[in-house]
Design brief:
alpha+beta, Jelly Rolls, 2 domains, four-stranded antiparallel beta sheet, 8 strands, elongated
Length: 147
């Protein structure tokens, strides 16, 4: 065999190896889709098909509002600021809005920037307690997802 034939043989083997790899990936992806019944998370991560979605607005009297209650079964959570004003969230339990008012305040806690600022609860930062929110303006909207 000359050098040209050797080069062509090496190229042909490389093409076959790449095609075999692509076929393996495709078969693996189809198994994941069937095995997890529509949940598209990779194995070892949260896998769920349904969630609870709600919309909450900040109070008209500027008192904090509870966004999430304590949930010892929580596996995922998301709070999104769907307003034109910054909103602050606080991870702590309070008996009511008046009790929370002393601590849940502007420029304290976790700031959710206007127009999409968000806080996501994942296995790495799993918080099971309640979440309270407060804003400098009334009637500002928060979108939440919890599982």
């Amino acid at each position: 065999m000359n050098n040209k034939q050797n080069n062509l043989a090496v190229i042909a083997l490389a093409v076959v190896a790449v095609l075999a790899l692509i076929a393996t990936v495709i078969v693996g992806l189809s198994k994941v889709g069937n095995e997890y019944a529509g949940a598209f998370a990779a194995p070892g991560h949260n896998q769920f098909v349904t969630v609870t979605q709600t919309a909450t607005t900040t109070a008209t009297n500027l008192l904090p509002v509870q966004v999430f209650a304590t949930n010892t079964s929580r596996i995922y959570g998301l709070v999104v600021n769907d307003s034109d004003t910054d909103i602050y969230i606080f991870l702590k339990g309070f008996s009511n809005s008046l009790t929370a008012a002393g601590l849940v305040d502007f420029n304290k806690g976790i700031r959710l920037n206007a127009n999409g600022g968000n806080y996501e609860i994942l296995p790495e930062n799993m918080y099971l307690g309640p979440i309270w929110a407060s804003s400098t303006a009334t009637g500002k909207r928060l979108l939440t997802i919890e599982k």
